[in-house]
Every structure is written in structure tokens, then in C-alpha cells.
Amino acid sequence: MTPPDSNSDPLRVRFAPSPTGKLHLGSARTALFNWLFARGAGGTLILRLEDTDKERSSEEFEQDIVESMHWLGIDWDEGPDVGGAHGPYRQSERMDVYTEYAEDLLQEGKAYRCYCTPEELESRKKATISAGGAWRYDRRCLALDKDEAAKLAGSGTPFTVRFRVPEGTVTVDDMLRGGVIVDASEIDDFIIVRSDGSAGFHLAVVVDDMTMEVTHVIRGDDHLTNAVRHVLLFQAMGVEAPRFLHHSLLMGPDGSKLSKRHGATAVSDYRAGGYLPQALTNYLALLSWSPGDDREIFTADELTREFSIEGVSASKAVFDFDKLNWLNRQHMKRLSSGELTDLVIPFLEREGRDSLLELPREKLEIAVDSVRNGMETLADAVGPTDVYVRPGGVLDEKAAFELAKSGEVREALQFCTATLREESSSDMEAAERLVARMREGAKTRGWKAKTVLWPFRLAVTGLTVGPDLTHLIMFWGPDGCAERIEATMKTLEASDG
Ligand code: GLU
Fold first, then answer.
1. Fewer C-beta neighbours within 10 Å, C or N terminus of the chain?
2. HSE-up of 481 (CA within 13 Å, CB side)?
3. Mean pLDDT over residues 350-359, rounded?
4. What's the rounded mean pLDDT across residues 333-338?
5. Minimal-distance CA residue to ligand 1 atom 5
């Protein structure tokens, strides 16, 4: 990837999730963007956990985020688990750093203490609005005289710290949107330290980005309005703001922000549903990036090489489940039988398919391989592979009915067993040869191929639907198939009784 700008500083980006929920697809896309930028430009990716909301943050969510990122193949160079020179990387462990910067801003008159209670604020807000005005903090506490302020400070009255928004215009230089210019008069004197002494979101983000030497902030465009405040804070602290890239948000098919209403939203849900991480990263990357031609299937390596800012679009990204399923199929197709089987095994375990799991490995691979064309996700291997552990000679109702209705069944099955007994190999060529000979046998008898092949399927599997005949022969071997047909013939004779 070409570096997003000619800045010669080493590129440092960060992914800063709040562990207040599982890793959402939208956040995963932000993480992926950051990762692609860092990896493509030889930069550094930082994982920073924004866990200042104690009530809503949990270790369980943190674990889900970290595990989901590992699963997606997104790694980071600095973070709570791997350490780094700019730690700690959990905001809850950095409160003293924020306090220091807040103190400086207070000293410099760039911030001030506000003693207004939430109730007072609410009632003034209501009054302003009912008088037809627009509410912004009315700077009452900025107007306190020295004595009043000293009295309040001395009495231990709780306070917040507000940033004193300077006059003028603020420009957020966004790599995707150009300069976004906002008049500072539209911005409230926002709270940078809460009444419990903890840092507010904006202060924490800016102090972290500054002290962690972040060069590029890549995040969803729901943070674009926050970026205005961040630029003001960077200016107040006398440092240059990082470059910003606010990518579009992930929408559901109805155009509203992707949420549970639209289906699963957590990366770990897709993992549990049998999606491949490479399909998901491919899909999330493609949602707002295009290689400039019509290629759609990319490995993570290809993405890190090719991803570039020029290909990123600012327009809405609409999640398309069909497209993801299609990509999942494409990536599954690229897997060898061995790789696919390894990935399917946990799903068989989860669904208690012990008898399949006890099969010799090469048999299990044939079984999995035989159902792969019908699979949209890895979980789809569960069910269709059950055919391989059915006892011989046991027919389901439909299969029994189908066999009973065909006049030539007995002759066809006898021909099948005789043909099978002539072959000893069970490799793919032998299996294909056998199917071809059964077709020919039908033809010489003046039958359609189906007259032989249909009873063959029914008799070997006991079912009317299932994998192709070649795989059935490879799995049970010619002799095994013959035995199963004989067992079925016995069942039929017994029922003729
Ligand atoms: N913690 C914020 C979030 O999860 C991200 C803040 C940022 O990237 O600046 O939305």
C-alpha cells in the first residue's frame, strides 16, 4: 500500500474499541482498515481499550474483542496483552495521565470548573428551549468571580471540568472528505473531567492519541463531530492533530445502522455460524474499498498489498448477507479437503456427531469433501454427512417407497453388486469407472441410466438425497457398497415377506 500521505514519520494507527459489547462487524471493519494501513505501510497498530464506562464495560467483552480479532487475523504491535512503550493501553489504567493534562488546561485558563448540578442544567436547558432558543452551556461558571469560585472550591462542592471552546472556526482535515469546517460557536464548552474525577471521552481520546504518538486516526464517521472537539483539544495542548479518516458506517439493507434487527452483528456469531475469517475480512474490506477492477476475492495478504486510500469510498456501506455467503463459498472452494475437514470438525463436535468423528481421517475427508458443494458455511457440513454413519440396509420411508415402486429394482441392484465386486480399488478413478459401467449396463438393457443409478443410491444410503455416487463408492469402497446393497435387498425381501 502507498502510505496515506508523504509524512515521513512512521505511521502509527490505533483501534480503540470500548469493551461494552462483542466485537461488532462495523468495529471489525474499522480494525481491519487500521490493520491494512499499518501492515501495508510498515507502520504500527495499537490496540487501546476504551473502558472508562465501568458500568457497561466487561472483561468478557474485552475477551470477545481480542479473540475475534485474533480469529480474523488482525494482529497488533502494542496493546494491553502485548505491552509496548506507550502503555498502559487500557484507559481505566491511565486516569492519572488525563488528570495531569486536565490540570494543565485549568492552569492555562483553557478549561474551567463547573459547579452546575445536572438538575440546574436541565432546568435552564428547558427554559431556553421553551423560549425558542438553542441550548448550549451558558458559561455561568466561567463567569464566577474569584471569591465565588474560591468559596465553592473550598466547600467541597462537586464539579466537572469544562473545556473553554475558543472563538473562530475549526477544521478537521479528513483524508476521505477533505477539510470539514465548523464554526466553534456551534460547540458547547464540553466536559473533559466528570464530577467523579474521571476523564471524559474526548479528553481521554486526545491525550491517548497524543501520548501514544498516533499519526492517523481511522474510525467510523459517527466520530466526525467528535473530531471537531478533538482538534480543539489538540490545539489547546499545543500539538498538531493526527490526520483523520472517517469511514462510512455499516448499514443494514434498510439503510439504518447495522444492528441485531438485521441479523447477527458480532464477529463471534459469524465464527460460530461457520464463516471463514478470510471471507469476512475480504467482505468487510470490499464494503468500502475497491481495487479499481472487478476482482472480488482477496486473501488477507493480497489485501495488505493492494489496499490503498485511493480505493476507499466515503459512500454508505450496505451489508449484503448474500454477498458474504457467496464470498464464504469462494473461500471454502479454495480449501483442500484436509483444511476443510479440520475446520468442519469443531462443528461436528459441537453437534455431537461422535460416530463421524470416530471415522478414520481419510474417510472423514471424503465425507466432508462430498458435501462441500452444498455448503454455504462450515456448519452446513453437519447433517448431510450423517449419511456416512447410517447402518446398511436401513431405508427411510421415502427410499423404501421409491424402491418398492420400481419394477427393475432387483435386476438393477444385482447388476450393481456384480459390477462392484469386479472392482477392488476405491480411489476416485475407480469410483468414476464404476459409475460409467453402471450407466453402460443400463444402456445395454435398454434402460435409462437412472433405472440403475437411482436404486443404487437408495440401496447404498437408504435415503433419497445425498452426496454424489462417486463419493459414496470412495467412502464405502466397491465391496462395502455391494454389502450395503445386499443388506437392502434383504430388507426388501423381508418386507415382501
Ligand atoms: N471508543 C470509541 C468507540 O468504540 C472509538 C473512539 C475513537 O476511535 O476515537 O466507538
1. C
2. 32
3. 98
4. 98
5. 16
Share of the chain above pLDDT 90, in %: 89
Give CA separation, 60 vs 14, 21, 23, 40, 378, in Å: 21, 9, 11, 31, 25
Unique residue bearing C-alpha cell 495488505: 304
C-alpha cell at position 203: 479528553
How far, in Å, CA of 67 to CA of 274, rounded?
16
Predicted local distance difference test score (pLDDT) of residue 292: 87
Range of the domain at 421: 397-496
CATH code for the domain of 483: 1.10.10.350
Q: Flag the least confident range among 171-180, 329-338, 352-361.
A: 171-180
The verdict on 344 and 431 lying in the same domain is no
Pocket of ligand 1 (CB under 6 A): 16-18, 50, 205, 219, 223
Residue 220 domain-assigned?
Answer: yes
Q: Which of 47, 205, 206, 210 to mutate to test the pocket of ligand 1 (most atoms within 8 A of CB)?
A: 205
pLDDT at 228: 97
pTM of the full structure: 0.91
**Residue of minimum CA distance from atom 7 in ligand 1:** 16
User: Could you read off the pLDDT of 22-53 as tens digits, one per residue?
Assistant: 999 999 999 999 999 999 999 999 999 999 88
Q: Say if residue 99 is in the same domain as residue 176.
A: yes
How many structural domains does the chain have?
Answer: 4
Residue 151: CATH number of its domain: 3.90.800.10
Average pLDDT over residues 94-115: 97
> pLDDT above 70 covers what percent of the chain?
98
**Domain co-membership, 185 together with 226:** no
In a domain, 455, yes or no: yes
Phi, psi dihedrals of residue 439, rounded to the nearest 5°? -60, -45
Q: Rounded to the nearest whole angstrom, what is the distance from the C-alpha of residue 123 to the centroid of ligand 1? A: 31
302 within domain boundaries:
no
pLDDT for 386-431, tens place per residue? 999 999 999 999 999 999 887 789 999 999 999 999 999 999 999 9
Q: For residue 90, is pLDDT > 50?
A: yes
In testing the pocket of ligand 1, which one of 13, 223, 225, 228 has its CB within 8 Å of the most ligand atoms?
Answer: 223
* Statement to judge: residues 185 and 59 lie in one domain: no
